Amino acid sequence: MLLRRIVNERRNENGLTLMEVLVVVVILGIIAAIAVPSILGMIEKVEADVCAVNRLEVERLYEREIVLHSSTHSEVLFSAFIQEHVLEPCPVEGVYMYKDGNVECSEHVHHSDKEDEGEEVPFL
């Protein structure tokens, strides 16, 4: 009987109580606090991956260009090649450079460079 009375009273109410609204807002805040950093991290990783793929493509095309024209690398030749052929540069506007046979980005470092930096022994 008590349960029926509570259900009937609940049906007659219009809207939500302040406490119910606060609980929903707190739950949404917790979900947002967890989700937003994860999404931002994924976006940065995807941008780095896109840049890595673009660098490999530029490197492959540039080396093919050098072989086809029987020339050697120079900064002027690489800059002209980039302006003429590269349609998809780094997604965060990094600048491509050709060093030691590899195309590098001013914004993204190679994964091997990151691993070298992370080899420090942590303080215990």
From TrEMBL:
The keyword Transmembrane applies. The keyword Transmembrane helix applies. It comes from the Bacteria. InterPro entries: N_methyl_site, Pilin-like. Its main location: other. It is found in: Cell surface. The chain crosses the membrane at residues 21-43. Keywords: Competence, Membrane, Transmembrane, Transmembrane helix. It holds the Pfam family N_methyl. NCBIfam families: IV_pilin_GFxxxE. This is Prepilin-type N-terminal cleavage/methylation domain-containing protein.
